[in-house]
Write a structure and sequence with these properties.
The chain is α+β, with helices and mostly antiparallel strands. It contains eleven helices and five strands; from the N terminus they run E-H-H-H-H-E-E-H-H-E-E-H-H-H-H-H. The longest helix is centred in the C-terminal third of the chain and has 18 residues.
Length: 279
Amino acid sequence: MKVCLSLQPHTNFRTLNTIEHRYGHPYHKFCTGDIDTLWNAPRANGRDLHAEILTFYEEHYSANLMRLVVIGREPIEALESMVRTFFKNVPNAERPRVNYDAAPVREPDQLALMYEVMPRQKIQVLTMLWLLPSLLEHHRTKPLEYVSHLLGHEGPGSLLSELKHRGWGNTITSGVADKGLDFTWFNLEIELTKEGVKNKDAVIMIVYEYISLIKTEGPVKWRWDEMSQVAQSNFQFLAKEDPSEYAEQLAQNMQLYGPDHIISAEMLFEEWDENVIES
């Protein structure tokens, strides 16, 4: 299926991607709204948005579902005292974690779509997205990071070198675009030349041919070991981050990983597993 669209400059691809998700899944929803979506439209449909917000609060506002990260220069005892003082009254209703297994991110008829977008800015990009199951349990092995490393390689014999040889591509990036407890979006983005735009279908075929080569070769441990060593070095000499952004990142990680991996899960390669990578 092919869909042709013209997007405003401020509209990003994630917004476009969100439109096609299953209605019953929260990923279908937008993160922001305006006077029409948050006031006029609900009132026109006889909905009391304030009452719905209170209902949502009663169903989900529970301490057992929340995670808290505090970063400060004070001693740990002082930070703990402040946390207990200001957060002790957050109610704990022992609410269960919401499960979306009954509402997948997309149905089969919402896959294999092609969007042809007319940008308002001068860009020529081919973006390919694959919807995969959640791979959070395999964070110690990082199978998608391994695949991303191969797809994004720029040396001789790489996907990009072939595209450049044909005059179809300039740059390539790949990696996990988004993830949740029940899904993973894997992304490959190629900056195309004018000739590449004309031959976009052939570019897509070359991508899948290269993926087939990766499958044929199978997982190679020395490649993974090399990535593991680089990741360990980057983690050891990690630059200081903005405290507010770092706290937000760790709070999100607390929802996804166990206590021993909250800080390191996104970076370290800790367990070689050929079967996980191959699958």
